[in-house]
Amino acid sequence: MNMNKKPMALMTMIAGVGALIAAGSLMGTAAIAAEKKADTPDPMLIVKGAKAWKENCGRCHNLRSPKELTDEEWDTSVAHMRTRANLAAKDARAIRAFLQSSN
Length: 103
What we know:
mainly alpha; about 100 residues
């Protein structure tokens, strides 16, 4: 191999690795943005959840402040009460979105 070709090949390899790193970083940033967008519930789902919370949970409970439990605790509570109160999955999702939107 010619001595002049070695530095050029090395620089091409470094540029290629740099491009791969930059592409991976951009894909990671896009994935994080998409994940954050997916975590943000639809405002109408929150409104439906507030109504379902009042109508369903209020029958048996003194209604708690949504800030009384953490998001994880609401996940557990809603999953438990979905089976106990025979809630539809869409109602349980809406109630969870409403409760977690306050945290």
